[in-house]
Fold this sequence. Notes:
Elements: E1 3-8, H1 15-21, E2 24-26, E3 29-32, E4 35-38, H2 45-52, E5 59-61, H3 66-77, E6 82-86, H4 95-105, E7 113-115, H5 122-137, H6 142-151, E8 156-161, H7 166-170, H8 176-184, E9 190-193, E10 198-202, H9 208-226, H10 228-232, E11 236-242, H11 246-259, E12 265-270, H12 273-279, E13 284-290
Parallel strand pairs: 1-2, 1-6, 6-7, 11-12
Antiparallel strand pairs: 3-4, 3-5, 8-9, 8-13, 9-10, 11-13
Helix pairs in contact: 5-6
Amino acid sequence: xxxxxxxxxxxxxxxxxxxxxxxxxxxxxxxxxxxxxxxxxxxxxxxxxxxxxxxxxxxxxxxxxxxxxxxxxxxxxxxxxxxxxxxxxxxxxxxxxxxxxxxxxxxxxxxxxxxxxxxxxxxxxxxxxxxxxxxxxxxxxxxxxxxxxxxxxxxxxxxxxxxxxxxxxxxxxxxxxxxxxxxxxxxxxxxxxxxxxxxxxxxxxxxxxxxxxxxxxxxxxxxxxxxxxxxxxxxxxxxxxxxxxxxxxxxxxxxxxxxxxxxxxxxxxxxxxxxxxxxxxxxxxxxxxxxx
Length: 292
């Protein structure tokens, strides 16, 4: 069976990288004062943050049109027997549910398009796409790839230090009072994503150095407990993600390599615009996930 792999730009895979990998990456729409732009096609990371930092400009995200995604599926089915589609986590967007329903109810795609709700975003989603490509190249069926991605979906963690509470407040994820207190105290809270929604991990961090210590301890806890068997088997990988924070991301990568010499740090990527829109610039994250 010949299986095509499709994901979206929330994975951090650029359009040029997608061509090299032989896959399709659906660009996620970004709305700037009501006008739609497409990530990595008509909107760069630099342009996005310039607009996001402007208090007079309204920046938000949207779902890709199912019909546009369907065209990509149709094109791939001309040359492949099936399609594995890995969207961003259903806990962070309705995109996944929309595409699951579309694939299940359109006769062109029934039994041929497998939409994987394996709760990934950013570099963990990228890892899933790379795993799917590897499995497809080994001759695995679409069902086998889908099953493995779903069976391992919770073998992943994301810990994010947020540099400002401004954007969480704007998105309605914090009350104005909490956001004001956090701003006065200059807090840099560490958040987490354990498959589903963005949630609090440590609310009292004030310094970048302390935030990194909190995140490193969280990774140690995961590796020593939740993922100990996978670590012993050499299956776990680390990655770094950030929002317009390139220098600190490179430093954090070096620190993680020194702290976890047995775990490779495979990616250092900007966070997707869909996540960045809610947490703002200056964020720094570490992720841990299983690899095939």
